Amino acid sequence: MSEQDDQKREFDLRWADDAEHKEPSARARMLAARWKDNPPGPVPFRADPEPGTARRSSWVSTAVVLGCVAAVIVLLGYINFRAPY
After folding, report:
1. Are 49 and 55 in contact (CB under 8 A)?
2. Contact at 8 Å (CB) between 32 and 24?
3. CA distance 74 to 68
4. For the CA atoms of the chain, what is the radius of gyration?
5. Based on the number of CB atoms within 10 Å of its own CB, is 81 exposed (0-12), middle (13-18) or buried (19 or more)?
6. pLDDT at 53
7. Residue 24 confidence (pLDDT)
């Protein structure tokens, strides 16, 4: 973009930001209409985990991924070793 286009764009952004009336987004209008009749209940900032779910350690996930990668490497090596030349 040229410098003139940058200045023109900056002017347009300032003009839009300084507008007296800003129309809400479509999502904001939809939620306002939905919540008018049925307002949402209070929600904690960070909800507690469900009591029946057990959380796995990130180490377990890492070990599973590395184990799968090692198994694929061994399998590919075995296939390459058994292939006739």
Report:
1. yes
2. yes
3. 10
4. 29
5. exposed
6. 60
7. 83
List per-residue pLDDT tens for the chain, 85 residues long.
566 666 666 667 777 777 777 788 899 999 999 999 999 888 777 766 666 666 667 788 899 999 999 999 999 998 887 777 6
Query: Which string of b and e fits 45-68 if b means at least 16 CB within 10 Å?
Result: eeeeeeeeeeeeeeeeeeeeeeee
Q: What is the pLDDT of residue 6?
A: 66
| Residue type at 81 in one-letter notation | F
User: Rounded to whole angstroms, how far apart are CA atoms 10 and 51?
Assistant: 52
Token representation of residue 57: 């350690």
Nearest by Cα to 30 from 38, 20, 42? 38
Instruction: Give start and end residues of each alpha helix (H) in the chain.
Output: 3-17, 26-37, 58-82
Q: Cβ atoms within 10 A of the Cβ of 27, count? A: 8
